[in-house]
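Q: What would this chain look like folded?
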Amino acid sequence: MPVDPQLRTLDIEIPTQPEVLVKLSLLMAAEDVDLPAISGLVETDMALAAAVLKAVNSSLYGLQGRVQTVHQALTYLGMREVAAITFEMGLRAAFPPAVELEPVWSRASQRGLLMGRMGQMLGVDPWASHSAGLFEECGKAVLYRHASAHYPAMLRAAKTDAELVQLEHTAFGVSHDALGAALCESWGLAPAAVTSVRHHVQIQDSLLIPEAAQRRSICAISAIAWVLMNKPADLEDVAHAIAPQAQLDETLVLRAARRVSEQLNEAQSRGR
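A: My prediction, written as structure tokens:
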């Protein structure tokens, strides 16, 4: 999809989607997903395959024994999570390595898992949910690459993403949420994932989902993932505020959030 023409006038480059991810998107969209084709595709890019296996074997997944092939990873974790890890590694590779961005990528891994698994439990498109979680902060990487001499200071100065958005608007005329949504559009992510990325800062700050938002359930799951990662003591209050706006059952949302959080904590305990 084309990038918003208004963003083009700002001379901020949106990286193009790597070819392997274009092909992976087509495989994921097929009615009958071909697992051998997916593993074969990922393994054609040795650096990408190595990055995927490193991620799969991290404490985040807590697998028993070491996974040595992409096919094994698909067997243990399933198609969606391996495809999402591949997208995550491809996204990271589109930007220069930077210490300042490591927290962004770390949060992306955890948030993607939280949102994908919650989506699955709640009957909300798990692939779109996982993708929205992975890409939520990718606009920060876009701005870092655009202004690597100045942007790290903004990341350090802002106590919240709402504050960061204001700093970004002042400095660049655009904020990372809008740039992240533009990257998602140009990489062909589902419209619901794009919407969640575009509005996540506003929703986290106000606990109000915009009326025009598509697939409001993914926006709600994003807010729940945020509170799990940042203010878990506020989970019940956030679920009470956000679930009805997306026509989700508050009790089921809380149950899914707690179960997924327990799963990740257990996995990390096993992986240490």
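The mean pLDDT is 90.
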